[in-house]
Amino acid sequence: MSIGHTLLGLLEAGPSHGYDLKRAFDSRFGQDRPLHYGQVYSTMARLLKNGLVEVEGVEPGEGPERKRYAITDAGLTDVATWLASPEKPEPYLQNTLYTKVVIALLTDRSAEAVLDAQRAEHLRLMRELTRRKTSGDLVDQLICDHALFHLEADLRWLELTAARLDALRTAVSA
Amino acid sequence: MTRHSDVTPGPLLLASDLHKSYGTTPALDGADFAIRAGEIVAVMGPSGSGKSTLLHCLAGIVQPDAGAVRYRDRELSTESDAERSRLRREEFGFVFQFGQLVPELTCLENVALPLRLGGVKRRAAEERATQWLERLEVSHAADRRPGEISGGQGQRVAVARALVGEPRVVFADEPTGALDSLNGERVMTLLAAAARETNAAVVLVTHEARVAAYSDREVVVRDGRTATGLTAGAL
Questions:
Q1: A110, A127, A162 ranked by CB distance to B213: nearest
Q2: How far apart are CA B200 and CA A172, in angstroms?
């Protein structure tokens, strides 16, 4: 999962401090693996360096100064490009796809388009494997079958998510 | 086996802005579709999305309430039932999930049936049917009735029957829906290979990704509308 893109997507809702971004991330995506503070601040430093976020204000506190980050136009474009680019099909994609779908819903983009682009990419690879299998020997067939069944499982999840988008839209906006 | 030499660059079958309702329930709500000769297109989408209605409109089985279906130089939505029925018999082939073989006839007679209905003499029809049973690797079932063979064999007989008239378009609605993985794979491999050899277009309705992977591209139907699957621009 791309932590940078996810934090950028969360920032689209409005400027935020690193601490609040970590809390938003953990509550939506960090069920098993909450972010470390160090990850948040190093990621924000990278996004700042690349011009994808800017510091809108600095508030002194008891500890280190608290920076308030805002997404830039380049950051908005970066999120849109990330959402529009299908992931390389491979097992255990669910975390990344789930994150993309939620970010699309949170930012009023088309979650259907995210799923459609991913379906097309999965099917493209499945066609390649099917061609290889059809013209190959038994070993090729068995190897391709294994990959095809995994990709099919991803696609089943994807279709189920597509069928549940209205419910998910309601859940994330609550 | 005749290879259709349709090299027209444009679509063989083209549908635009199709609308169809059953009572007050809309099944199609502005669906578009195009397929070229020799192309296999998977029509995907959840149950109730309008996939089968789209197939029925494309094949001239059902008339849309609005929109156009153009096959070569013919506009199907303005043709009579009899004209469309003849078109289906002469130029289209059909494979469904269940119940398409006549139980009283042998498999050979089932495959020869479309030719016989088209006026081909028995001997010639059965010769061609025999070739297609061989092509689909079910020659051994020629003298048996559908109730005496397995589901996988029956579906290959059904594919032979769909292809025996060497149609320009094959409509396949969940052709492997009732089969296990191995039999489904055999049916799809043989169907795709035979269609490519004859340059037939295949409209393949399926909800199974592994079946859709035999296609050249997919069209997704959702709420009666079609998307190509390449909708990243919609973001």
A1: A127
A2: 47
Q: What ipTM does this complex have?
A: 0.80
Task: Encode pLDDT of B137-193 as tens digits.
Answer: 999 999 999 999 998 899 999 999 999 999 999 999 999 988 888 888 988 998 999
Closest CA to B155 of B220, B105, B110: B110
Residue of A nearest to B218 (CA): A120
Radius of gyration of chain A (CA): 19
For residues A76 and A96, give the distance between their C-alpha atoms in angstroms, rounded to a whole number: 19
Q: Give helix A18-29 / helix A37-49 axis angle, nearest 10°.
A: 110
Which helix (H) or strand (E) segment holds residue A27: the answer is helix A18-29
Please give the single-letter amino acid code of residue A12: E
Nearest partner of B223 among B97, B76, B47, B86, judged by Cα: B47
The structure tokens listed for B95 are 């494979």
Q: Which residue type is seen at A114? A: V
pTM, to two decimals: 0.80
CA-based nearest residue in chain A for residue B220: A116
Q: State the Cα–Cα distance between residues A26 and A22, nearest whole angstrom.
A: 6
Task: Please answer yes or no on whether B231 and A117 come within 8 Å at the CB atom.
Answer: yes
Report which DSSP code applies to B213: T
